[in-house]
Request: fold
Amino acid sequence: MQTREWAAGFAPLTVPIFRLVWLASLVSNIGSWMQTVGAQWLLVETNSSALLVALVQTASAAPVLIFAIPSGVIGEFLNRRLVLLYSQAVQLIVVLGLTYLTWIGQTTTLILLASTFALGIISAIQLPAFQALVPDIVPRNMLVDAASLSSIGVNIARAIGPAIAGLVVAQFGVAAVFFLNALSFVVFLGVLLFWKTYKPPVARHEPFVDATRAGTRYVLHSHIVRVILLRLAIFLVPANALWALLPTIAKGSLGLTASGYGLLLAALGAGSIIGAFVLPWARRVAAFNGVILLSSAVFGVGLVVLVLSPTLWVTFPVLVATGLAWIGVVATINGALQAFLPVWVRTRGLSFYQLVFFGCTAAGSAVSGVLAAIWGSEVVVIAAGILCVLGALSLLVSPIPKTTGIGRDIVEVPGVDDEPRADGSDDAAVLVLIRYTVHQDRRAEFLSVITQVKETRLRTGGREWHVYSDADDADVIVEAYSVGSWREHVSQHEGRTTEFDGALISRARAMSAVVPTATHLLAIQPTRFHNHMPRGNG
Reply:
């Protein structure tokens, strides 16, 4: 492994503001993991069921199912620094309240889960904004490594946070853990207040509902994004059995205390730190699918060995390898998605990543808890490990499509004027008709290309798309698609078409024997002329 390959993985840390934000995020994540350990151990000490312990993870992750997509729109169009600033302040207030109730002995299971759910809501709001902030402050060629560093920071927190939490719980109680988490929010707040030079990127104005729909349509009509998110889900649902049931395994079959449980999580986090050195090299040697396949398989084997291990001397190194494998899957997928998403929809696309990530965490944790109550934690973790291995092997049959060479920069497609329409019809729905003249010998080829153009139109704002042949002229083919408003159609031409999409449109136009002509029809609202119509007697 070359030294420069190690250094490449850490290159984003040479950007001063990224380094500062990354360190603040690391401190905050350490506090969050301390919070999770404290909450789970508070339930374990009261002999709560495995289901209730697992529900701590579910309560933390479930809010993303509700708020992920709206949060993507918030992060896309509002000042991302301010979104993070207010989110950290609200979380600080919630944790301080929980700290006080725990200190006086009034924290019930309901209060604990409700507080965790509230923190999950705020986390759901800030996560897309935080992830989309990275491309604002690092060069494009560092995006994958920056995403890896962000994921590695989370897992370094897993190494440090739980170990500290275990020691603090043993010496000072759970309330002290919650208080230290509150201090971590203060650190992040301080960095955000200090960082006054941030200039948010200028985004084209879009109404909230329209922006939400646009982000959803993009994901639905981007094959590569859908496949990446599906692969993430296939791994995460069984993999989360580890995080949900590790506390019960630690206390039960391993007979460990809170500090021992913290050391198990520390071993997992240590593996992710090693991943910081290994991943840049692995991505260059094994490529995208190879890293995910190998990492998923190692993670699955690690779950099985964790349960069957005869001694902690085997358990700890296995958990280190398992932590490395976790970061290998999560950081690789996250980095690839960030690099692939076009700038105009990056935050909204990442909100779907958060939706899948935390939704699968919530679902996987809940299912694991329910099954553990029936069959026992050990059986469920072994079964989850087998599923992870099977998911890895399925990549041999159905790999993730390669994204290299697919132009992601935005290009302008001529054809419309961005000036507001004089008749005030900017909000009117648009029907676009494009007339091509294609000779019969090129018809099949053209139809193949125009079918790909369909996905381009729908990704960038189209709502319905059809292609017609002229009944009076066999060489004429008409492409027809609708857009929600004239404003959004202008965005299609000036801010949403990538190099890849532009090339497809150019191919289709080049096959026309004459220059294609476009007609734009604006919808007329019946209310505009209803009062002027004669009343009938029917």
